[in-house]
Design goal:
By secondary structure, the chain is of the alpha+beta class. The chain has one domain (about 10-260): Jelly Rolls (Sandwich), CATH 2.60.120. It contains 5 helices and 13 strands. The strands form 2 sheets. It has a 9-stranded antiparallel β-sheet with strand order 1-11-8-13-6-5-4-3-2. A hairpin with an 8-residue loop joins strand 4 and strand 5 (about 95-100).
């Protein structure tokens, strides 16, 4: 990483704000040069995933080792322990999410150990030694990038982890984020209610979306911020994002940490943080 940061710990004021609000936005934590490197890395991930799915040819069918399935009509493909989501109804089948992404790109693997991320996370977990839970890359392509409905992360993970309260996230923005391109949004203070009820409609994944009667949407905060900013957020906070109606992508990586001594979500291997 480019920056030489001597003290990247959160102040007592920042910690108090995180605990009260359920999130903390730190603007321009990374330089424009670093963001450009992240954007190029995201392009390399797209190329690697496309090559794996195409079997190095023009065939649109997944490679033999890939497992394709649909949830609520949306296309997913598992490549070993990596899950690829595609944009809803996009004729070009552009990528929506790749998780975990760190095994596909050395720069993102290096980012996991970045002090500007893991030092604050040691305070938020809290733990003296961290391990990775998961790291996913959101693409949010221009014009077609779909939104993420209101949800909490903890209900997704409760069957895979006995310590969901110790799985805080940090999102690093590769591009400027605005309401027009589908910036991250949160329901301030909703983390204090724990796991909230999910929706009960006929969608396969309905239960993972927070029931609209369980929180006050009027408390939402749009986190518009420049590229290089980072959002630390609690696993219980209700959050989501809008669609990208702009002419530019809104790419970001979300890294989730946990205490050392536990394996990562999808690989089943412990990845200690240096």
């Amino acid at each position: 990483m480019e920056a030489n940061v001597s003290d990247v710990s959160l102040s007592e004021c920042e910690l108090a704000r995180y605990r009260e609000q359920g999130f903390l936005l730190k603007k321009a934590l990374f330089t424009e040069g670093e963001c450009e490197a992240f954007r190029r890395a995201a392009q390399r991930v797209e190329a690697k995933v496309s090559a794996a799915l195409d079997g190095e040819n023009a065939d649109t069918e997944p490679a033999p080792e890939a497992l394709e399935y649909r949830l609520d009509g949306n296309r997913f493909v598992d490549l070993a322990h990596v899950t690829v989501q595609f944009e809803h109804g996009d004729p070009e089948q552009r990528l929506r999410v790749v998780e975990p992404v760190n095994d596909l790109e050395p720069l993102f693997e290096q980012l996991l150990d970045e002090p500007r991320l893991c030092q604050p996370m040691k305070q938020l977990v809290p733990a003296e030694q961290l391990a990775l839970w998961t790291a996913k890359l959101n693409f949010k392509h221009s014009q077609v990038g779909s939104g993420f409905g209101w949800h909490q992360d903890a209900p997704y993970w409760v069957h895979d982890s006995a310590h969901v309260e110790k799985l805080p996230n940090v999102m690093v923005l590769f591009d400027d984020a605005s309401a027009k391109n589908g910036c991250f949004r949160v329901i301030e203070g909703s983390h204090r209610s724990g796991c909230l009820p999910g929706c009960d409609d006929e969608r396969q994944l309905a239960g993972f979306y927070t029931h609209p009667h369980a929180f006050e949407e009027s408390a939402q905060v749009l986190l518009e911020a420049p590229a290089g900013s980072a959002v630390f957020f609690d696993p219980h906070i209700v959050h989501g994002s809008g669609p990208n109606h702009s002419t530019s992508p809104r790419r970001a990586i979300i890294v989730t940490y946990q205490p050392a001594g536990f394996v990562a979500l999808k690989s089943g291997v412990e990845r200690l943080i240096d």
